[in-house]
Design brief:
The protein contains 16 helices and two strands. The protein is mainly alpha-helical. The chain has a single domain, classed as Farnesyl Diphosphate Synthase (Orthogonal Bundle). The chain has a two-stranded antiparallel ribbon. Helix 3 runs antiparallel to helix 4 and helix 12 crosses helix 15. It is globular, with a radius of gyration of 19 Å. It starts with 10 loop residues before the first helix and ends with a helix. Belongs to the FPP/GGPP synthase family. One of its GO terms (molecular function) is all-trans-octaprenyl-diphosphate synthase activity. Pfam families: polyprenyl_synt. It comes from Halopseudomonas sabulinigri. Keywords: Magnesium, Metal-binding, Transferase.
Length: 322
């Protein structure tokens, strides 16, 4: 994953972050380390620590504290993944078995709790109350987003506004907090810090919109997860919501029934309905708008290879196939 060009300017920083993550996974309980190492070693795109490093460097910071902040953000993200997979009863993530599939739900939840608490220990060590405040608020908002999403499972009456609230809270919030705290740590001016915060929000929304689109148009091997996972869990994401509102009566009825019962028995006709209704084009269009906004927001930062990489990342969010 790190062969993508926007990682290159901070490749050395990334090595330092990975080393710090391994050090901070230490525990006197072997199972904690075992599960922690398993989920961290799965890798993934590591976009959240990436935006910390690029954002801090773009604002002129060259300081080991950015490595700590990036590791904190990755621990918070990994904790949410462990909990999400239990809530969603997922058995595949990033092409590998989930921790809950291998060790069970209880250890996964508890190791998620360990990663949260270790992240807050590291925040205390940073000694910046504003960063602590931003990240404490972010973890609250993320949890609220998860609960809101859970409350809408198999609810075919979920509207677009509620869906957007879910993805802003559940996904965009940590991107926003990562970028915001990078600006704070770098002591950027108020305009630059606010632009970074808004960039993170726009990037996160674009990223989740594309994730939800790829659930109906992507390839399971490329994505590292099953196509139709959201439908299997009865999640009314935007492609489905749009199809119910703007598709034919038959398409709407098919999608409504699938959401209400869950499962992927009808995944092939539903993928056809979602495509034919224009839902994929609509979702992709919204994602592109967010990516364009993200790029525009960066213009208050000084020109640098780091700003260039943040722009490339925004474009990648909507052009990717995985």
């Amino acid at each position: 994953m790190t062969t993508l060009p926007f990682y290159a300017p901070v490749s050395d920083d990334f090595d330092a972050v990975n080393q710090l993550i391994l050090e901070q996974l230490h525990s006197r309980v072997p199972l904690v380390e075992k599960i922690g190492h398993y989920i961290i070693s799965a890798g993934g795109k590591r976009l959240r620590p990436l935006v910390v490093l690029l954002g801090a460097r773009a604002c002129g910071l060259s300081d080991p504290r950015q490595h700590s902040l990036a590791a904190i953000i990755e621990f918070l993200h990994t904790a949410t993944l462990l909990h999400d997979d239990v809530v969603d009863t997922s058995d595949l993530r990033r092409g590998r078995s989930t921790a809950n599939a291998l060790w069970g739900n209880a250890p996964s939840v508890l190791v998620g709790d360990f990663l949260y608490s270790r992240a807050f220990e590291m925040m205390v060590a940073l000694g910046d109350m504003q960063i602590m405040r931003i990240l404490a608020n972010a973890t609250n908002v993320i949890a609220e987003g998860e609960v809101l999403q859970l409350s809408k499972v198999r609810d075919a009456n979920t509207d677009e506004a509620t869906y957007m609230e879910v993805i802003r809270s559940k996904t965009a919030m940590l991107f926003e907090a990562a970028c915001h705290t990078a600006g704070v740590l770098a002591e950027a001016n108020a305009q630059q810090t606010e632009a970074l915060r808004q960039y993170g929000n726009a990037l996160g929304i674009a990223f989740q919109l594309m994730d939800d689109l790829l659930d109906y148009s992507g390839d399971a091997a490329e994505m590292g997860k099953n196509v139709g996972d959201d439908l299997a869990e009865g999640k009314p994401t935007l492609p489905l919501i749009y199809t119910m509102r703007h598709g034919s009566a038959e398409q709407a009825a098919l999608v409504r029934q699938a959401i209400q019962k869950g499962g992927t028995d009808d995944i092939a006709p539903i993928r056809e309905a979602v495509a034919a209704s224009g839902a994929l084009d609509y979702t992709a269009g919204l994602a592109r708008e967010q990516a364009d906004e993200a790029v525009q927001l960066l213009q208050v930062l000084p020109a640098s290879e780091y700003r260039d990489s943040l722009e490339q990342l925004a474009r990648f969010a909507v052009d990717r196939k995985f």
